[in-house]
Amino acid sequence: MGVLFLFLYRRQFAKLSKFRRRDWVHKNNGEIVFSYAEAIDEDKFKFTRPKFRRALDNLIKFGFIDINHHGGGMAKDMTTYYISDRWRDYGTPDFKVKYRQKDIRGLGFTPENWEERSKKKRRTKLKISNENVTGTSNKNVTA
Question: Does the global pTM surpass 0.85?
């Protein structure tokens, strides 16, 4: 609940018309940024990484926020979020379930993706074998 309030706090509103009172719209919806580094900062919010991740997963799962752009922390590309109204349909057949995508960019080489990433084929048989190696004896060795 605390993370939701922090997202709502980051909203900005703009007035469409100066004559009507109800013409306020979200100005930065889809551009809301809340980084992991900021969430785990001990001087500000003091969340742990797992706690913040679970909070994001639950907010997305229950329809309070959605991800606009998946960023990459190493490339200084921030994930942007927007406030969603999907929560209004929660528990009804109209509710659209969404989940946060699992980040697989930094996994490196695995046995499943090795050929694709290295652009090489696996060897089926070793070139060097021990088949024709004969044993040596010490019978002819003199002192």
Answer: no
